[in-house]
Amino acid sequence: MNTRSLISCFIFTFIFMFIQKTYAIEKIAIINLINIFQQSPQQALAAKQLEIEFQDRATELDLIQRDLNAKIEILKRNSKNMDSNARNALEEALTAQRENFSNKAKSFDHDQMQRQHEEQNKIINQIKHITKQVAFEKGYQLVIDSNAIIYFNNIQDITEDVLKKMDQK
Fold first, then answer.
1. pTM for the whole thing?
2. Residues with Cβ within 8 Å of residue 55, at least 6 apart in sequence
3. 141: nearest Cα among 25, 32, 22, 21
4. DSSP H helical ranges for the chain
């Protein structure tokens, strides 16, 4: 390395250190995103809405499952006394009903998970928006989720402030 590049490197490092100290973030706060999410009234409301939204389909699946179990019991009890055509017809009907149940259950699970993710994203976006408001009001330059930090000292936790604002919405 020649002298010119060594001096350039030294100057660059010095300038970088000076700029970094000049623009250091001084007001940092933390929040516990998981606690806010779990304690928010929006989460409880969304869970209740999803339960109502999927209640009819869950009931339908439960009825199909009960019917399947009843037919399996009939087949087990009466298979020795049934002729082969009747037994085969019942087994085929059971197979078709199992496939139908499986398809409906997969669709139900997929739709339910998709809706849960949609509602979770709405709530998280609300939390982010309210966190930005609180941070701005209190003059914080950076807010970090406490679950992402291994150690912190003398950092303000604004979780309760965010929760209060979530309750107001």
1. 0.72
2. none
3. 25
4. 3-22, 33-39, 41-78, 84-138, 159-168
The region, left, alpha or beta by phi > 0 then psi within -120 to 50, assigned to residue 145 is beta
The Cα–Cα gap between 158 and 142 comes to: 12
**Long-range CB contacts (within 8 A, 24+) of 5-9:** none
Three-state DSSP at 38 gives helix
Query: Locate tokens 């002729």: which residue?
Result: 83
Nearest in space to 105 (alpha carbons), one of 62, 151, 136, 55: 62
Residue partners of 127: CB distance under 8 A and separation at least 6: 33, 36, 37, 40, 162, 166
User: Hey, what domains does the chain have and what are their CATH numbers?
Assistant: 3-168 (3.30.910.20)
pLDDT tens readout for residues 112-139: 999 999 999 999 999 999 999 999 999 9
For residue 131, count other CB atoms closer than 10 A to its CB: 23
| Residue 162, CA atoms < 13 Å, CB-side half-sphere | 33
**Token pair recorded at residue 157:** 């936790």
| Rounded distance between C-alpha atoms, residue 96 and residue 145, angstroms | 50
Angle at 68 between CA 89 and CA 50, to 5 degrees: 140
